[in-house]
Design brief:
single chain; alpha+beta; two-stranded antiparallel ribbon; two-stranded antiparallel sheet
Length: 182
Amino acid sequence: MAEANGIRISVKTEGVSDLIETLERLPAKVAIRPLRATLRKAAKPLEMEAKNNLPAKLSELKPVITTKNMRSFAGVKTGVYTKRAVVMLGNEGRKVQYDAYYLLYWLNYGTLSRRDPTHKFQSVVRSRKEHLSPGIHPRRFIQKAYDSKGAEVVKYAEDNLLKDAEKFLDRNSKRFIQKQVV
């Protein structure tokens, strides 16, 4: 589902009450690890599709599209992020350095009167800019990636979340038991 703050994917799991009980007994930072690892693996096809949907002229900006851990909860986010590359763009006859995030944001959502109507922008186009050219057409490469790979991401997460958490606990159970006994 596309939302104003990004694309949120909910995963349904059944029969995991014992696993959840075990994970709740672990420290929060430890319990989050297998969940994030599975979600990162699930998000890989989405990340690759978004990179493949980039215009050919911008293929060197593929590292700007990545998957990151969420800080506030056990989740991941895939998209375009700042401070990963710099581009030089012409501005009134001179070259200016911009974070590549802005260029990809403009190409994804469009600019001025051609802005993507499905995206919630923080501000409207100001009237003093209406006399300018219509702006950049939205290419929507992030949304196209989600439309084509979203179901695959959800399916992978649903199929593997429980298995990966159990593998994590099996691999690390001796270490966790020793720390609790001591």
